[in-house]
Input
Amino acid sequence: MEAQVSIGVQPSCTRRPTVSPPQPRFQLSAKPLFRRSPLRSAASKPAASTEKPGASAVMEASGFDSEGREFRNAVEMWREAIGKEGDVHKRKEWYRQGVGYWELRLCSFFVLTSEVCCNSMVLSLNNDYGAERFPGGGRGRNLVALDCGSGIGRVTKNLLIRFFAEVDLLEPVSHFLEAARESLVPESGSAIENKATNFFCDPLQEFTPDVGRYDVIWIQWCIGHLADDDFISFFMRAKAGLKPGGLFVLKENIARSGFVLDKEDRSITRSDTYFKELFHRCGLHMFKSKDQKGLPQELFAVKMYALTPDAPKRVHNTRAKAQPNRPGIIK
Output
């Protein structure tokens, strides 16, 4: 029997999760009309994952789309979404429709949600990671960050520019980027000397950063628009954009298992193990991860990952091997 889908949207920016009885087998509320916010999904509320790590477990896990259709695995889903390998037209159409979804959204649809998780992640990185990577907490250094999928610039304005001397913004929707440029004009008499420097109007899958420019590349609520192969290609290119000791910070919605494909805005919500398999394929290593706390159960879980291209340092055991218990020699 075909699954029913219940969709509810409230016009207010303070909308709350919508529940429509009776409960269907797969219920998905519509994605809000602003980016930078978790997608609601009763099928993907936070829960302990039963998936086991490993490529076969991840890529063979089933998933759904926003119309309730079930896919046996990610390969089947991507074949439907972007066509078979070499189908350039269908892939371009996937990305065109994804950007088109946001081009129809006004800047006023964005809301300033809590950045507690972001702040705590930055402070944690500063305490645990900064001593090794950024001596002196970065003071006296020209720390530079890239804000990927920057939208109207709220993450840069309310978070990144407090920690980094320069922040570059990357956003494919031109009127969002112009709004960010206007909002990030330095205020007269401001004590903060940090600044937004470059504004790139490019999609993630086509962007290549300058070599060795960034201490941190921040990717928040936008990587879901990339197909798996473009996800990997982006990180492979972006690794060259990091300074020695630099890292990626990725913040994203997390599916309970497998994946959820949103056919309206052309994006995919991946599970934690799905992400970890892709990180492995990108040659990235997990430094730290953090779950967003305090979200309603109707929302996707949200997770942050701090990733480094540097392999973890091995700790060599210098302790002498224990000698077998044998009698001493009496002289």
